[in-house]
Write a structure and sequence with these properties.
alpha+beta; 4-stranded mixed sheet; 13 strands; globular
């Protein structure tokens, strides 16, 4: 099986857990929706390409491990939307303004608790099932020459180096991570035990867990689960 090896190295990153009210948590590992959005951005798609995003998400498979253990960080946001400089201004960076609606979320003071993973280095192996577009070659090319700047979960999470490491081959995604040497992390904290998450059908001997990592791109809300193993990973010598 061919797959792409990715490395997420950034001061902060966030992997979009299920959001409730003003609390925006981060999962411990990147999920299908996060990686789908990253690839879609690299391909030049936008949030209105819902059919293509749903199709890519359904075909995507992911395994990931932490090479440098991150620290969790919670950023407290508050903003009063009635300020003069926030009334009648644009909300997007897509070259045009976008007006507010009329609901409760469009005025008054807003509070957010945004969760991040700081000072970590994560290595991921991804592949896509089938030969539909985009192929693995399309994705590889897009990550090498992205249509737009890439970010790791939120626009403030800018990677410190190119995300794409290269192409690898193995029977299972977890085997790719076992064979790949740990990244050079400098003075950052190496975990005492390397922890990974990988698809349950790769096998593992642990109790699989249901992870809410899929998104309904048309309705813009979480949709369904995928089953993974999460646990310590033994590296190949």
């Amino acid at each position: 099986m061919a797959c792409l090896l990715l490395r997420f190295d950034a001061p902060i990153m966030s992997f979009g857990g299920v959001c409730v009210d003003q609390i925006n948590p981060s999962d411990t590992f990147p999920g299908k929706a996060m990686i789908t959005g990253l690839i879609g951005n690299a391909l030049g798609w936008d949030h209105r390409d819902t059919d293509r995003l749903d199709g890519l998400q359904d075909r995507l498979r992911i395994a990931a491990r932490w090479d440098a253990e991150p620290q969790r960080l919670i950023d407290y946001h508050t903003v009063f939307l009635g300020q003069d400089h926030l009334v009648g201004t644009g909300w997007t960076t897509r070259g045009r303004t976008e007006g507010r609606g009329s609901g409760q979320a469009t005025s008054g003071t807003h509070i957010r608790y945004r969760h991040y993973l700081a000072n970590g280095v994560l290595t991921a192996a991804i592949t896509v099932l089938g030969d539909d577009i985009p192929t693995l070659e399309n994705i590889e090319q897009a990550l090498k020459y992205p249509a737009r700047p890439l970010f790791l979960g939120r626009k403030t999470c800018i990677p410190s180096e190119p995300i794409l490491v290269g192409r690898r081959h193995a029977a299972h995604l977890i085997d790719v991570l076992r064979a790949e040497p740990l990244a050079d992390i400098g003075p950052r904290r190496r975990p005492q035990v390397v922890t990974a998450r990988w698809p349950a059908d790769d096998g593992g001997g642990y109790q699989p867990e249901a992870v809410y990592d899929r998104r309904d791109w048309g309705a813009n809300m979480p949709r369904g689960v995928h089953h993974y193993f999460t646990g310590p990973m033994e590296m190949m010598p």
